[in-house]
Amino acid sequence: MKQSKLFIKTKREAPKDEEAINARLLIRAGFIDKLMAGVYTFLPLGLRTLKKIENIIREEMNKAGGQEVLMPGLQPKENWVKTGRWDSMDDLYKIKDASGREFALGPTHEEVVFPLLKNVIFSYKDLPLYVYQIQNKFRMELRAKSGLLRGREFLMKDFYSFHTDEKDRDDYYDFMAKVYKNIFDILGIGDKTHYTLASGGTFSKYSHEFQTVTDAGEDTIHICCKCEMAINDDIIKENKSCPKCGESSFSPKKAIEVGNIFKLKEKFADDFGLKFKDKDGMEKTVITGCYGIGLGRLMGAVVESSYDEKGMIWPESIAPFQVHLIRLTTNDKRQTIFADKIYNALQKSGVEVLYDDREDIGAGEKFADADLIGIPWRAVVSERTGNKIEIKKRNEKKTRLVSEKEFIKTLK
Amino acid sequence: MKQSKLFIKTKREAPKDEEAINARLLIRAGFIDKLMAGVYTFLPLGLRTLKKIENIIREEMNKAGGQEVLMPGLQPKENWVKTGRWDSMDDLYKIKDASGREFALGPTHEEVVFPLLKNVIFSYKDLPLYVYQIQNKFRMELRAKSGLLRGREFLMKDFYSFHTDEKDRDDYYDFMAKVYKNIFDILGIGDKTHYTLASGGTFSKYSHEFQTVTDAGEDTIHICCKCEMAINDDIIKENKSCPKCGESSFSPKKAIEVGNIFKLKEKFADDFGLKFKDKDGMEKTVITGCYGIGLGRLMGAVVESSYDEKGMIWPESIAPFQVHLIRLTTNDKRQTIFADKIYNALQKSGVEVLYDDREDIGAGEKFADADLIGIPWRAVVSERTGNKIEIKKRNEKKTRLVSEKEFIKTLK
Question: Is the pTM of this model over 0.90?
Fold first, then answer.
């Protein structure tokens, strides 16, 4: 894509009311725009990254046997009354229409997926079953102030698994933990992301969170000094000692919850009468699990985990483009033609390129923009590069001169 | 995909409270599930078709120069007060949070895109500019009863164009009408879809609707008996005669509005102060247009336009799969192995196949399911087909026996 055509320009300053680093950098670089606290528009660069995150997650969910659906945000009050969450969930947005009928605006989808599957699951032959969606959620946050980390509206992947028994569910739960680990590895935050013991709320004894350690984290996790297990704040306050090894000294760290997985006990299955006939003809309750990842939050967590004083540093897997090709302004028409040729050659090779073809903008500003946007490779064509290209990785200082062929080979 | 794994089964009967043919067929075939009136879950087959519609539209919008963004559903009340639509729009869902702050749940996005572009458009050099999204909308319908044709929640493509002058906008408007025509051609409803003169509401003198003629239509359009121009009900009630040729006899037809395009006059640009500096340094108001297509409604309109007594008949462009491969139950293991081989060969050739590998289900039920689901090609492997495949198009009666190679060649 030609940068001259991109309708959003970078900004020198972030909005004054925006404290979070992820939002400040993403807004300055033109990835997102703030409509109000906790509610953002994804702009072309940001949407490219968001779609890449979406596709990575979708691929892994499909590999895990998930069947994709798309459930509504607008949900009937009755389903929420049935689970007791119409009154108990503080952050539920409620809507009343002109006839007085009330709806919930879904922050999660147990109230939709359980009734749906009640019409589908009858026998042990129908199990196990895995259903997921990637869909917009709403949550009433009165004070949203962490950029993409805590939104009033946010894209989420929610996955639900249905099993004949606890053993099968527990095995799948452990499997899904590995799938999650793999996703965070692909996004370059695997090393910093801890599989963290968390309380199960009213649903089960324990659940697990995936917590990415960064200074921007709103959560605190506690790494056991003996067995290195990560434990969340709630559990520590209750237990005082490590549930795994009994140790009572911990190293606290600030972290962002990028995913969570839950064993649901029989809570929702009982609410909606989700039962099946076992091999011996006995009626039993379906055993379930649920598995969430917030896509925008994940994008924010990657930014918080990977930036420097100049801007963001994207991993190749979710960078909006692979190469930022910069043509420095010149009176030598041959260099302009050469840069255009490189742009076309890269695109033909299937490389995603943002091409800074803007006229009348100095080298300093172009380099500053490239550092801010944070595309993995910077490639410069100028009067000084002759028939070569000066390339450099975003996270390295050293540049080198290569031919077009060498560059394309490097990228493959 | 193996049909035995598909978690949704077809139904013999549609829900009793569902009158619309599109909803009855889509529910019976397992494409959608009704959560409540006007609110549906897209199930795996339905989501595949929806995503295909989405990708066709996205490709055409990108070709038309559109830059894709993703705007929020939750919108600040202040923006809606500024345009006067907080009070004037009857079907706007309003939300109040626990602090008393009010929000709109977006049925359209002028209130977001105009303020966004005010920070981007300064000079004639920034124009023209085209921005679009494919995003979930909400509209307060008290009596939703037409399946996907009129939803409380629905996926929509909304496109906004920004210009220096009316001539440029009008040229683009005419160009977009052709882009729309092309989309409806790709979806197989081009012949039945009329470019229809409509009133411009408070925004402009005229707008245009794309109206697909079917008995299920909630609108009535009037085809001029002389010049064949299509005119919507509002205009006819006002004018009594054809605005183009003056003729006053019309042929009325029921139709579904699958798209609409608007010239916006200066309404929203004035509300949000969207101005630019012209070449001569003069400050002028940006001239705009907007262009919508409802994706779910389009899917419903295709169903209403293409079905028979047995079920739906999808065009190849948006069918959930290209081929419905049916293996009839047999004691001859060689036929089972042969059918599996065909399935793998088709997939390797890049053909999307739904493989009815279900055991213990008779030929009659499998054929009925295939007709109901409406995939363009039916391919049967049974004891009688030997080392050939019996193929048939959904909209044809004649079957023929072909080899694996011939079949793959036919599909390309």
Answer: yes
DSSP B325-392: EEEPP-S-HHHHHHHHHHHHHHHHTT--EEEE--SS--HHHHHHHHHHHT-SEEEEE-GGGTTSEEEE
- Minimum distance, in Å, between the CA of residue A140 and any CA atom of chain B: 7
Q: Quote the minimal CA–CA distance from A7 to chain B in Å.
A: 7
DSSP structure string for A288-346: EEEEEEEHHHHHHHHHHHSEETTEE---TTT-S-SEEEEE---S-HHHHHHHHHHHHHH
* First-residue to last-residue Cα distance in chain B: 20
How many CB atoms neighbour CB B292 within 10 A? 22
A95: contact with B, CB 8 A cutoff: yes
Residue range B21-308 forms a domain whose CATH class is: alpha beta
- Residue B92 carries which DSSP code? -
Q: Is A140 in contact with B98 (Cβ distance < 8 A)?
A: yes
Give, for all 412 residues of chain B, the pLDDT tens digit: 999 999 999 999 988 889 999 999 999 999 999 999 999 999 999 999 999 999 999 999 999 999 999 999 999 999 999 999 999 999 999 999 999 999 999 999 999 999 999 999 999 999 999 999 999 999 999 888 899 999 999 999 999 999 999 999 999 999 999 999 999 999 999 999 999 999 886 667 789 999 999 999 999 999 999 999 999 999 999 888 998 999 999 999 999 999 999 998 788 999 999 999 999 999 999 999 999 999 999 999 999 999 999 999 999 999 999 999 999 987 888 999 999 999 999 999 999 999 999 998 999 999 999 999 999 999 999 999 999 999 999 999 999 999 999 999 999 8
Could you tell me if B152 lies within 8 Å of chain A, comparing CB atoms?
yes
Interface test with A, best of B54, B105, B142 (most A CBs within 10 A): B105
Q: Which residues pair with A344 in a beta bridge?
A: none
Q: How big is chain B, counted in residues?
A: 412
Q: Identify the architecture of domain B323-411 in CATH.
A: 3-Layer(aba) Sandwich (3.40)
Q: Does A41 sit within 8 Å of B72, measured CB to CB?
A: yes
Give span(s): CATH 3.30.930.10, chain B: 21-308
Contacts of A44 in chain B (CB under 8 A): 67-69
By CA distance, what is B129's nearest residue in A? A7
Interchain contact A131–B (C-beta under 8 A): yes
Q: List every span in chain B annotated with CATH 3.40.50.800.
A: 323-411
Best probe of the A interface among B50, B95, B155, B354, by most A CBs < 10 A, is B95
Contact status of B31 with chain A (Cβ, < 8 Å)? no
Predicted ipTM beyond 0.95: yes
The kind and range of the H/E element at A393 are strand A389-393
Chain A residues in contact with B42 (beta carbon < 8 A) = 69-70
Q: Find chain A residues with C-beta within 8 A of B66's C-beta.
A: none
Give the chain A residue whose CA is nearest to the CA of B136. A136
Q: Tell me how many degrees the CA angle A391-A396-A400 measures, rounded to the nearest 5.
A: 30
Interface of A with B in 222-251 (CB under 8 A): none
* pLDDT for the residue numbered B266: 86
- Pick from B360, B299, B331, B296: nearest CA to B136: B296
Contact A68 B44 (CB under 8 A): yes
- How many C-alpha atoms does B139 have within 13 Å on its Cβ side? 17
Q: Does B42 sit within 8 Å of A70, measured CB to CB?
A: yes
Tell me which amino acid residue A117 is: L
> What is the three-class DSSP state of A231?
strand
Per-residue confidence (pLDDT) for residue B219, from 0 to 100 = 94
- Could you read off the pLDDT of A186-202 as tens digits, one per residue? 999 999 999 999 988 66
Residues contacting B201, CB < 8 A, separation 6+: B207, B262
